[in-house]
Every structure is written in structure tokens, then in C-alpha cells.
Amino acid sequence: MKEIVRTGMDRRGLWRALVLAAMLCSAGASPANAAGPSAGAAGLGDRLNPEIGNGGYDVQDYDLRLRYATSDPDQELQGDETIVARATQALSQFNLDFGGKSLGAVSVNGQAASFKRTGEELIIKPASPIANGSTFTVLITDFTAAPTKITWAVDSVAFFVTPDGSATAPQPYDAHLVYPCNDHPRDKATFTFTIDVPAGHDAIANGTEIGHFTSNGRTVWTYRMNHPMATELTQIAVGDWDFSPTVQHGNVAIRNATAPAITAAVQPVLDLTESQLDWMEARVGPYPFDTYGTLIVNAPLFLQMETQTIMLTYAGILDRADRPRAFWDPALVHELAHQWFGDSVSPYSWSDYWLNEGHAMWYMLTYADETGQLEGDTAGGWPDPQGYATLDELMRAVYAHGDEWRKQSGPVALPKSGGVIKLSSLQVYDGGALVLYALRQKIGDAPFDQVERTWVTRYRDGVASTDDFIALATEISGDQTVTPFLRDWLYGQKTPPMPGHPDWIVNPVGSIR
User: Does the pTM of the predicted model rise above 0.85?
Assistant: First the structure.
């Protein structure tokens, strides 16, 4: 107020300005809004990938209508899409992420909109501005995307080819290579998938199958994901699949799909799903979705992924003749744990990725410990190439590498790089699990279990950050020293002392084996 007076405005003018401001606020406007609509941000400013995602709106629902013209696994996907979103500012234009091959036309609220593509940004200018707080509908027609063949040189397996068809693995930033979207887990939405394929071929997507029908040589499959989902968790698989009979296990419908050549061999692995569900629910509470299952492709994918409600894996990791059960049984629990940690509760930013992977590793290793499988190849050679008799022994080995990993990859919740490979570092996975071990040592088993259960209920179907986790752990424990304790573990450049284990030693930096 003093600054306004100094500019020469007299008291009567000042009074008029204050009255006008009050009138604008009472009418639902603010000085910023009074300036008129503006362009939504071209990125969400994520610390590790500032350009991914878009600002100015919140997607509520995606309706994807996809067509595969032939049975050729290498063929392009063709699609139309309806997006329902709510404006979080008055918009003159807004962006979607899209790195597919082409698209036909765009309309907003039923009116043709102008658009252009710049890199992997789709910039849309509606015929009329969009009011702050209003719900608007975007229709995108005739977009196309092409799958890739899996090779060591391929940059992304967001949309990949197998001998039996194609599937998707878009984590972390690549769903927009398949369809236009706001490609950041901060903006979750519900989904409908309608997939048109040649008769005799199958389609799989996240959520519950609504039904399928065949007419004029084509089969149309429809799936509905009623729980909000991050785009990076999308699964769209088309081709020849064997569907196992759906099994109702409590409130969860279990459905699996496998490449025909491997169905018989992997069935004993799939038979473990019910007991693994029971194990996880006993520790963190009810499974957060209506369906669960596994999609197993017969291709050298070299990854598993927690695509929401139907995790993705490949035949090689489940080869019971070549690999011990201690390798693949806990690995399946890892992806199951993600349905709570990463899917139902998604990270606010990619620096919070440890909340996904640290938790999945924690439950994977705890399961291996309780089922006597830590002495096998559970850790996959991480952090050292031998088995461990107990979880404590494994955590001690992880602890020894703490400073090395902090120098290589950054603190657990401050990764140095958002690159796809570097983001999935030992620090984020094993180091994230070590943070949870340290927290349990600090506050005790019962409070720790309460933190975990409260986390997945309080933030169910939403997003949460590292600082949210710190605040919750402090709240549940009733110990204000938990905040600086966890901040040191998650953001510090040096590995803190381990509670209860004063004899544990951190290797000198530079002694990496």
C-alpha cells in the first residue's frame, strides 16, 4: 500500500482501487485472471525432465479408440482420442505431449482448433478461449504411431513388437510416443480403451474388460480403467494371446495373458499370484484395484514393468529350467508391490521415483527373506554377487555402498540424471529400500507398518512426494527427529549412521567392485 501511495495515487484513488479489487475477487476474478487467457506451460518443470508434461489443465479422462488394420505385428497403430480436462487457468492455447508419427485434426468443445507440432509438443489453439475452472473436451482424430523392434540399439520400448503382436512399456516418459497425452504421473486420469483388430486376434489393456464382439471380420475389445492412472503405466497389447480363465480371489479378479508358445511352461509361475496377493495384503492392506494379472511376452524384453492392473514381463525371466525360483518368485512380488507403490500412489515428481522402486525392492526382499529365498539369486548380483542369509546381511551390504552410489547417482531422492537408464540406479532401488530399513530401525516395526498402511490409504488414487512421506512418518511416529533423520537419508550427500548397527561401515568412495 505504501508503494501505491508513493506513485502519486491519492487516498480517494487508493480507496477506489481497493474497492475494484474487492469487486473482482467477489466476482471470482483476480488481477491475474483479469489479464485474460494465456498459454498453458509447455512443461511441468519436473526437476529431472522439465519439458515433460504440460501446465494449465488437469486431464480427467482419456477415451482411446484404436485400430490395427492388419495382423502384422509391425503395423502402425491408428487412433482417435477424446480427452476431458479441467482448466486450471484461463487458456488461450495449451500443449499435449505427442511423439507419434502423424495426426489428422483437432477440435476443442466441438469447434475445429488450429494446431502445430514442435518436436514432441502438440500445440493446440482453440477457436475460443477456455475459462479457468471450466471442463473442456479435446477430440484428436487420425493419429498414428509405429512400434519398434527390440534391439540393443533401440531407444525406447514404449511400443514394441513381439513374435505374437505388439505391447507397450512406456515408463518413464514415453506414453506420448503412442498417443497424445499429458505425459507426467502428476496428472492421472481414468481411461477407456476401444481396440479394433482383425477377427481372431486379441487385445489387452489396463482395467476391466467391458466386452468384445466380432462383426464383418473385425473384433472390437473394450476395457475400462476406473481408477486414475498415470500415462506411463499404460498397457495396450494386440496380437495372439492365450487368456487364462479369470479367477476371483476375494475382491480381485485375476486374469493373465501369455504368448501361446510359452503358456504351459509359465503356468506354475502364474499359480503363485493368489498367495503373493495374500502376502502383500497382509502387510499393506487391500489391493487397490479391481483386477490384477500378468502379461508375458515371448521376446527378449529384459525388463518387467508395473503396467497398472496387468504387469508386464517376458518369458526369459520366468524360465524355471534356467533360473532358480529365488530369481523369479520375488521378482514377481516386486511388480505386484508397485500396484500400491507407484500405481495407486504415484510420484509427484520423478525425483520421488524411489518411493516406487525403494518400496518395491523392500517388499521383494522382505518376501524373499520370509520365504527362504535370499540365499539364491534374488538380488540379481546386487549389490554383490552372492546370496545372503538374512535381510540384515543384505542391507549391511547395501549400506557399505552408500557413499559410492551417492557420488555416482546422487542422493536417493535427488537423482543426478533423469535418463531412463540412470534413473533406474542401484541408489534408487536398493538405496531406496535401505532408507525404509533405516526408518524401521529408527521408529520400530509397528509404527513403520502403520506408516506403510496409512501411506497407501491416504494417497490412494493420487500422487505424493518425498516430503509427504517424511511428514507422514513424523506424524505416525510422534517423533519430531524423524524429519531431519529422513532428510539426511534422502537428500544428504553422505550416508548417515544406521540405527541399531553402529558397527556398519560405509566403503570409501572409489572402492567400487
Answer: yes
